[in-house]
Amino acid sequence: MTASRARRLSKVYGHGASAVHALDDVDIDFTGGAFTAIMGPSGSGKSTLMHLLAGLDQATAGTVHLGATELTSLDDDALTRLRRDRVGFVFQSFNLLPMFTAEQNILLPLDLAGVGVDRAWFDTLVATLGLGQRLTHRPSELSGGQQQRVAIARALIAKPDVVFADEPTGNLDSRAGAEVLSFLRRSVRELGRTIIMVTHDPAAAAYADRVVLLADGRIAGEVLDPTPESVLAALDALRQLDDRLAGDGARGVREPGLGTGAISVVGA
Length: 268
Fold this sequence. Notes:
The chain is an alpha/beta fold. Helices cover 37% and strands 25% of the residues. The chain has helices at 46-53, 76-86, 102-113, 119-129, 144-156, 174-189, 202-205, 228-250; strands at residues 2-13, 20-31, 35-39, 61-66, 69-70, 87-91, 162-166, 195-198, 210-215, 218-224, 265-266.
């Protein structure tokens, strides 16, 4: 089952000579019930791709589907409803409301949608994320790792089709980051969720089932069953290829729009 897909997806910022091609004719599928990480150098288009897949930004060209629904044909009101009902978000900055308790923050999407709480699902999330003793605490009374776990529960509470995580461990120390990534992986394997995560950290990407590599706004390869070592090797190969092509371009032999080529690495 394909949870999300893009076809000939492009995003251009600006016009004329100053135009920046953040994404260039991208085709990609994301399998349901899987954990996928998106990686690439700064400016590679990874965050742009996630924002387009989640309906947070409009494409210049191409299509995005969430399940059978084409996002690129929806108006603003329909997109708002889709993001509320079928998409979850986990961000680096947690984005918890400081005046609310952990439980109130978790249930906020349901309150906004006017939907009743599935208490069995709520209890499952709380137990899985180890938040049972923290539900009455406000964000200021929680550690960074605990706040991010609350944010994950909030993203999952409405049982969205896909959860998008943008650098979810960027503000955490290594121990808290490992805990959060373990919970994300458990939400896929034990709770059946679909997660698409943007990260710059090979160790974080190794928690995923698959790593998609981007460079110059194009798909540049993937790593299956990733380990930190296989992800590092793939990124290093990508950098070497880009340096070699850049050198060829300086000598006048790089074709316009060639990009970085494509690599495919399968982990151990």
